[in-house]
Amino acid sequence: MTGAAQTVAYVAAAINVVAAAWGGLLWYRVDDAPPAVWRFIRVAQASLALHALIVGGLYLGGLRPASGLYALYVGLPIAVSFVAEQFRALAAQTILDARGLEDAGAVGKLDPAAQRSIVVAILRRELGVLVLGCAVSVFLLLRAASTV
User: Fold this and answer.
1) Residue by residue, what is the 3-state secondary structure of the chain?
2) What φ, ψ does residue 120 adopt, rounded to 5°?
3) C-alpha–C-alpha distance, residues 48 and 65, integer Å
4) Over the stretch 23-36, which tens digit does the pLDDT of each residue have?
5) TM segments (predicted)?
6) pTM reported for the whole predicted model
7) CA dihedral 70, 74, 76, 79 (to 10 degrees)
8) Longest C-alpha distance within the chain, in Å?
9) Please, what is the average pLDDT of the chain?
């Protein structure tokens, strides 16, 4: 199990590193994130599920990990990604609450510059949360690879 499981973990970690670095750079520079970065973050999240499926298949095939912690390190990245998605979903309301706005309708009543400012803040928070999720997943995937 060691070789195949390590390879899959390293591939998933590499994909998540790229997603975290690319998204992190855009977050840091406060640049508009192109649709490609959002799609790549989704690919990184899918790689976590694929990693778990492949490892599960290896386990069902009779190959067992050396450490009991291994299952934890396989499942935690998926949980981290799920929690990051929940925080991403809350990002818009958090920004609106911080600015004393009730909902998106209240944003529509603002001048275009203020609207743009709010949209940028929401997208930046969403990107930051997902990037952080990818970065934590990298750490967990590398731990998984080292505990097989």
Assistant:
1) CHHHHHHHHHHHHHHHHHHHHHHHHHHHHCCCCCHHHHHHHHHHHHHHHHHHHHHHHHHHCCCCCCCCCHHHHHHHHHHHHHHHHHHHHHHHHHHHHHCCCCCHHHHHCCCHHHHHHHHHHHHHHHHHHHHHHHHHHHHHHHHHHHHC
2) -60, -40
3) 18
4) 999 999 998 889 99
5) 6-28, 40-61, 127-145
6) 0.89
7) -160
8) 63
9) 92
Which single residue is written with the structure tokens 């001048």? 111
pLDDT band at 1; cut points 50, 70, 90: low
**In 10 A of CB 79, how many CB atoms?**
13
83-123 residue pLDDT tens = 999 999 999 999 999 999 888 888 888 999 998 999 999 99
